[in-house]
Specification:
With about 130 residues, the chain is mostly helical. Helix content is about 60%, strand content about 5%. A two-stranded parallel ribbon has the order 1-2.
């Protein structure tokens, strides 16, 4: 369910839904609204209650230097240390240092978490296919 919603789904119903409920749901989504089965709502609220607020993540990002921010953006684009070094005209060792500082300042374990933090904070916005 979470992956479907992240991918852009406008609604989510359980498989035991009645035909009438399904037709109503299609009309709701076609009208531009979103819809979740009532049983899903409780799980979503519980899950979102555990997420860190975006404002907190943005405050943490403000502790990054301009260069660390650039490196985080390039990591979020999926570039390797070698590619980042070439793009920024610095050594790979310098990139490794910047990545380590980003991870440390943001309290993250690895590059994957750094990418997630960049998206969650709004620093990077997902691209929609044309």
């Amino acid at each position: 369910m979470y992956d479907a919603l992240r991918a852009g789904a406008s609604g989510f119903l359980l498989k035991d839904v009645t035909a009438e409920w399904l037709f109503d749901a299609v009309r709701v989504v076609a009208g531009g609204d979103a819809l979740l089965a009532p049983g899903i709502t409780r799980r979503l609220i519980s899950e979102f209650a555990h997420l860190r607020p975006v404002a907190t993540r943005q405050a943490e990002l403000s502790s990054l230097t301009k260069r660390e921010n650039e490196v985080l953006l390039l990591v979020a684009e999926g570039l390797s240390n070698t590619e980042i070094a070439a793009r920024l005209v610095v050594t790979e060792e310098t990139v490794k240092t910047h990545v380590s500082r980003v991870l440390s300042k943001l309290g993250l374990r690895d590059r994957t978490q750094a990418v997630i933090a960049a998206y969650e904070s709004g620093l990077v916005v997902p691209r929609h296919p044309a």
